[in-house]
Automatic annotation (TrEMBL):
<dbReference type="InterPro" id="IPR020806">
    <property type="entry name" value="PKS_PP-bd"/>
</dbReference>
<dbReference type="InterPro" id="IPR016036">
    <property type="entry name" value="Malonyl_transacylase_ACP-bd"/>
</dbReference>
<dbReference type="InterPro" id="IPR020841">
    <property type="entry name" value="PKS_Beta-ketoAc_synthase_dom"/>
</dbReference>
<keyword id="KW-0511">Multifunctional enzyme</keyword>
<comment type="function">
    <text>Part of the PpsABCDE complex involved in the biosynthesis of the lipid core common to phthiocerols and phenolphthiocerols by successive additions of malonyl-CoA or methylmalonyl-CoA extender units. PpsA can accept as substrate the activated forms of either icosanoyl (C20), docosanoyl (C22) or lignoceroyl (C24) groups from FadD26, or a (4-hydroxyphenyl)-C17 or (4-hydroxyphenyl)-C19 fatty acyl from FadD29. PpsA initiates the biosynthesis and extends its substrate using a malonyl-CoA extender unit. The PpsB and PpsC proteins add the second and third malonyl-CoA extender units.</text>
</comment>
<dbReference type="InterPro" id="IPR050091">
    <property type="entry name" value="PKS_NRPS_Biosynth_Enz"/>
</dbReference>
<dbReference type="InterPro" id="IPR016035">
    <property type="entry name" value="Acyl_Trfase/lysoPLipase"/>
</dbReference>
<feature type="domain" description="Carrier">
    <location>
        <begin position="938"/>
        <end position="1013"/>
    </location>
</feature>
<dbReference type="GO" id="GO:0006633">
    <property type="term" value="P:fatty acid biosynthetic process"/>
</dbReference>
<dbReference type="InterPro" id="IPR001227">
    <property type="entry name" value="Ac_transferase_dom_sf"/>
</dbReference>
<dbReference type="Pfam" id="PF22621">
    <property type="entry name" value="CurL-like_PKS_C"/>
</dbReference>
<dbReference type="InterPro" id="IPR036736">
    <property type="entry name" value="ACP-like_sf"/>
</dbReference>
<protein>
    <recommendedName>
        <fullName>Phenolphthiocerol/phthiocerol polyketide synthase subunit E</fullName>
        <ecNumber>2.3.1.292</ecNumber>
    </recommendedName>
</protein>
<keyword id="KW-0443">Lipid metabolism</keyword>
<keyword id="KW-0560">Oxidoreductase</keyword>
<dbReference type="Pfam" id="PF02801">
    <property type="entry name" value="Ketoacyl-synt_C"/>
</dbReference>
<dbReference type="InterPro" id="IPR006162">
    <property type="entry name" value="Ppantetheine_attach_site"/>
</dbReference>
Length: 1035
């Protein structure tokens, strides 16, 4: 046989032998990251900022500061420093993506909003879709106090009263930061806030790591955020205070006077290292160990740092990590640049590290605060991210503004030195290792030991082509997703396209706007996507419904030499099923059917055109293709076969076992082979039109469509028929068979076939299928009656009627499971044009040049586009593919922001405004209608209009349609309560809260309101039913 098995190498050999056992036992893998900092909107930009040594602190003009609300007299103070680390775009948010109404988004602290976006990005960066992940995902995070609540919301008492104070509290209080993420992303692991001032986010990483080791969750999100608004604001410098005199953080320098404020967010995705290695995750770094403690009272004051406390936590982390200090070659310090803090931090490090080594200048140190300022609760996670990126790129970025050491720090006799330029990270003694410190006011100290990720090679894929799937919530986001991926592929790539395809398939949420491409490599993908090649780049909108599938099995005439050869070489499931059929047929026939389908060059190639060989060969290929589809989670809800194809349908449905199906197919092939030679002809005529050509030598074998029939007869009769058809200019096609099937010519073999069927054990169908004999659904009685299968051999194939029956279900997808596209063409001839995309062949025609793998993957993509339920995680089975970092979702961020009032705010004024507030205050702003799954339809009556007004007021959305979903617009249970209250006041009807959840749309809710109003009328005494009463109820 000419086809080799083509199997790729199995799991990565020797991976675990290369990994330190301590890592497998208690190591934590960082598998995903996301951040936004001053000067950087993502992880890649952050690394670029670091390696270039950029200073991202912004210095403001007087005009900017005055516009932000600073007072003129403050600007004239010589101690006023006009600097801050500004995070761009804090007023922006993709509310619709996360199911927020515009109103809810506007009253939500930007810290909550941006942390939610970064949590989603980090999971995507790790290659995980939380909706499809079966394990527990925990959230551990920290945030600063909500300055947005204080400066922007509290002055608007009328807004707060109209919204409801509890709603405002949920969007701004620290307590709800992590639980909101868990709710919005459907995360079911532990979820709680961790607050220890500046060290909060690094403590969160420690707590998350412990939770993973204790198996409280399987994935953990850990991080922190700090955004203080307005950002265009400086500060007053105080001698020996925390903040710098000039807006520069000069950590460890003689000129250091403190740090500078900054705003930002960082999130990491953590897994147990053993799980990450097993699951094929890309590991960015390993947490070898971590520790947290508190200074206690052994220091000069509550806010002061402690040498003893810091030294103890560093020593504890080293002990947990089980590494020697002299193997740590970089230290990301707390590094605030204060006169007291810097010397204490170095003294604590010296105490610990001098116990291991007397060497000097062996460990570089730095502080990210010199680049972007002090990010308060988020400072620890940002320092951690800096180290992870440094480990990945094997470079140490410069720590800025260091010239001469603080005179209280003796670096010359210390293991440490300040790294002031971009340096290649060399570590001759051990894998690259680094420490990260974060110390909080109040004395809670955290220290984490990191190690570079162990080397793990990607496995070669056996597939020559790969299915890339893209989806987005809106059409414009889909285009942005496509452009991002094009740009990604055009960069120098070390990632295999198989891993990229796998990550897109399993690590991205599935949205309604969809696009697919089958490509061979990243450059091929980029070129096809850039051109939007219509034959390759397929795009469709899918409404969210999982659509059922019918499998269509072709019959004789569709076979060709080497059909499915690519699939046999590359797909283990297909190969195993083919081999299984061969093993069953060989004892029955004495023939190696694999060599019939895939002959070597020296073998005869014409055997496959003989019925004796073609019928078993076709069955084998169609059965193997079915097993492939089933392995990908694509299970049919209906089946139809054409002639021989019905045997495959019956086998898949459970009427025959595989063994008995093959025995019957072989019997049928043998019996037909005994008959005198005949021919079959496909003609472009209706059943009525072919009647004039029928006689005792020519029969109607199949009705395939309104103008497509198959005629069967002796060779002489068919030759005469061809001459007639030529005269009348009727299109026809010879079918490559050598018998006159489904005609009186087969009657001499019916008794023998009947005897064969009677020896089979027939079962009721488990999957419904269409009968070729009747053109409608087969009954249990028919399927289990041997006489039915005799009629099936002899009678006309009613395929056209069967297709009409299937097309009655408007949502049914039709998938041709066998060689060629003949059945798909017949189905499209009877379907409306809008259903053409739902009729899909999955194997190439014998004359097509494209490969079987390409065709199959494109068919898979078309099914996914149309909404079929698919287990994409199985496409590469049993290969061990990896989840790799790819561009994340392009949020369509809009401004959701309540500006502070121009006049000053005071509690007394707030109390006065609160007393004056109207019950339903007008909204401060309204927002455009978001992209929804429903088309806009305006209210058609007064009740619908009134409900529409209520929704628009509460949700602050313009142009709400009567079929728009309340919760898709961003509604929630609190707003639903207000809807019910307003309806009660407006229409004098009592509605339960669940009515909003059950009706969902204005149209349905209006029908319910009208029913309640009619019930109210019917309950009134007849004397009270005056015209005024009725008009009052409905006005």
């Amino acid at each position: 046989m000419s086809c080799n098995d083509g199997s790729a190498s199995t799991a990565e050999e020797g991976v675990y032998e290369l990994v330190d056992p301590a890592i497998l036992e208690h190591g934590i893998a960082i598998v995903g990251m996301a951040c936004r900092t001053p000067g950087a909107q993502n992880i890649d930009q952050f690394w670029q900022l670091l390696r270039e040594g950029s200073h991202a602190i912004r210095f403001f003009s007087d005009e900017e500061l005055l516009a932000a609300g600073e007072k003129q007299e403050l600007l004239q103070n010589p101690r006023y420093v006009r600097a801050n680390g500004v995070l761009e775009g804090v007023e922006l948010f993709d509310a619709a993506f996360f199911g927020y109404s515009p109103k809810e988004a506007a009253i939500t602290d930007p810290q909550h909003r941006l942390f939610l976006e970064c949590a989603y990005e980090a999971l995507e960066h790790a290659g995980y879709d939380s909706e499809r992940y079966n394990g527990l995902i925990g959230v551990y995070a920290s945030t600063s106090i909500s300055s947005y609540l204080i400066t922007h919301l509290l002055p608007h008492q009328e807004k707060l009263a109209q919204t409801g104070y509890f709603s405002v509290l949920q969007g701004n209080d620290k307590d709800y930061l992590t639980t909101r993420v868990s709710y919005k992303l459907n995360l079911r692991g532990p979820s709680y806030l961790i607050q220890s001032a500046c060290s909060s986010s690094l403590v969160a990483v420690h707590v998350a790591s412990q939770a993973l080791l204790d198996h409280e969750c399987d994935i953990a999100l850990a991080g922190g955020i700090s955004i203080q608004v307005p950002q265009e604001q400086g500060y007053l410098y105080q001698e020996e205070g925390v903040l710098s005199a000039d807006g520069y953080c000069r950590a460890f320098d003689a000129k250091a006077t403190g740090t500078v404020k900054g705003n930002g967010v960082g999130v990491v995705v953590l897994k147990r290292a053993s799980d990450a290695l097993q699951d094929g995750d890309i590991i960015h770094a390993i947490i070898r160990g971590s520790a947290v403690n508190n200074d206690g009272a052994f220091k000069v004051g509550f806010t002061a740092p402690s040498v003893e406390g810091q030294a103890a936590v560093i020593a504890s982390a080293l002990a947990v990590a089980e590494v020697d200090a002299d193997t740590v070659t970089y230290m990301e310090t707390h590094g605030t640049g204060t006169a007291i803090g810097d010397p204490i931090e170095i003294e604590a490090l010296n105490r610990v590290y001098r116990e291991y080594s007397e060497e000097k200048g062996i460990c570089a140190i730095g502080s990210v605060k010199s680049n972007i300022g002090h990010l308060d609760t988020a400072s620890g996670i940002i320092g951690l991210l800096k180290v992870v990126l440094s480990l990945k790129h094997r470079q140490i970025p410069p720590s800025l503004h260091f010239e001469h050491p603080n005179p209280q720090i003796d670096f010359e006799n210390s293991p440490f030195y300040v790294n002031t330029s971009l340096a290649d990270w060399k570590s001759p003694k051990a894998p690259r290792r680094a420490g990260v410190s974060s110390f909080g006011i109040g004395g809670t100290n955290a220290h984490i030991l990191l190690e570079e990720a162990p080397p793990v090679a990607s496995q070669r894929s056996s597939l020559p082509y790969h299915l890339l799937v893209f989806s987005a919530r809106t059409a414009t986001a889909l285009e942005k997703t496509t452009e991002q991926f094009i740009a990604w592929c055009q960069q120098p790539q070390e990632l295999p396209i198989a891993d990229m395809a796998y990550t897109l398939q399993v690590g991205r949420r599935e949205f309604s706007y969809r696009r697919v491409l089958v490509a061979s490599d990243p450059l091929d993908a980029a070129q096809a996507l850039a051109k939007r090649e219509p034959s390759r780049v397929l795009t469709m909108y899918q409404d969210g419904r999982k659509r059922p599938i019918a499998f269509l099995y072709p019959g004789s005439g569709s076979q060709y030499l080497h059909m499915g050869a690519d699939l046999y070489r590359t797909l283990p499931v297909f190969r195993d099923a083919m081999n299984q059929c061969v093993d069953i047929l060989k004892p029955l026939s004495g023939i190696d059917f694999l060599s019939i389908v895939y002959p070597s060059p020296e073998q005869q190639a014409s055997q496959l055109q003989q019925t004796l060989y073609s019928l078993p060969a076709l069955f084998m290929v169609e059965y193997a293709l079915t097993q492939t589809w089933l392995s990908w989670g694509i299970a049919p809800s209906a089946l139809i076969g054409h002639s021989l194809g019905e045997y495959v349908a019956a086998c898949v449905s459970g009427v025959f076992s595989l063994e008995e199906a093959l025995r019957l197919v072989w019997l049928r092939a043998q019996l037909l082979d005994r008959l005198p030679g005949g021919e079959m002809l496909s003609v472009s005529l209706s059943a009525e039109e072919v009647a004039e050509f029928l006689d005792m030598h020519v029969s109607l074998a199949a009705i395939n469509g309104p103008s497509s029939c198959v005629l069967s007869g002796t060779r002489e009769a068919i030759a005469q028929l061809v001459a007639l058809l030529d005269e009348e200019e009727v299109d026809y096609l010879r079918i490559p068979v050598d018998v006159a099937g489904h005609s009186p010519h087969v009657e001499e073999i019916l008794d023998a076939f009947r005897d064969g069927v009677k020896q089979c054990e027939l079962h009721a169908p488990q999957v419904p299928f269409i009968s070729n004999v009747t053109g409608t659904w087969i009954t249990e009685e028919e399927a289990t009656d041997p006489e039915y299968w005799v009629r099936h051999l002899r009678h006309t194939v009613q395929f056209s009627a069967g297709i009409r029956e299937l097309l009655k279900d408007p949502f049914l997808l039709l998938l041709e499971v066998g060689p060629g596209n003949t059945l798909s063409i017949h189905a499209k001839l009877q379907a409306a044009p809008e259903r053409f995309a739902a009729i899909i062949p999955s194997m190439r025609h014998g004359l097509e040049k494209q490969t079987d793998v390409y065709m199959l993957l494109q068919a898979l993509g078309k099914l996914w586009l149309a909404g079929a339920a698919i287990d994409l995680a199985q496409v590469y089975h049993p290969e061990k593919r990896r989840r790799v970092p790819l561009p994340t979702y392009p949020f369509e961020r809009q401004r959701y922001w309540i500006d502070p009032p121009e006049r000053g705010f005071s509690p007394a004024l707030a109390s006065q405004q609160s007393n004056e507030v109207q019950e339903y205050a007008a909204p401060l702003t309204t927002y455009e209608r978001p992209a929804l799954t429903s088309l806009y339809k305006p209210p058609s009556n007064e009740i619908e209009q009134n409900i529409c007004d209520i929704w628009q007021h509460l949700l602050e959305v313009k142009q709400i349609g009567i079929h728009d979903n309340f919760f898709e617009l961003g509604g929630n249970s609190l707003l639903a309560t207000q809807v019910v209250t307003r309806l009660r006041e407006l229409f004098s009807v009592e509605l339960p809260l669940r009515s909003v959840f059950e009706t969902l749309t204005i149209a349905k809710l209006a029908e319910l309101v009208e029913e309640k109003m009619i019930e109210s009328l019917e309950s009134l005494p007849e004397d009270d039913l005056s015209e005024e009463t009725i008009q009052g109820l409905f006005s």
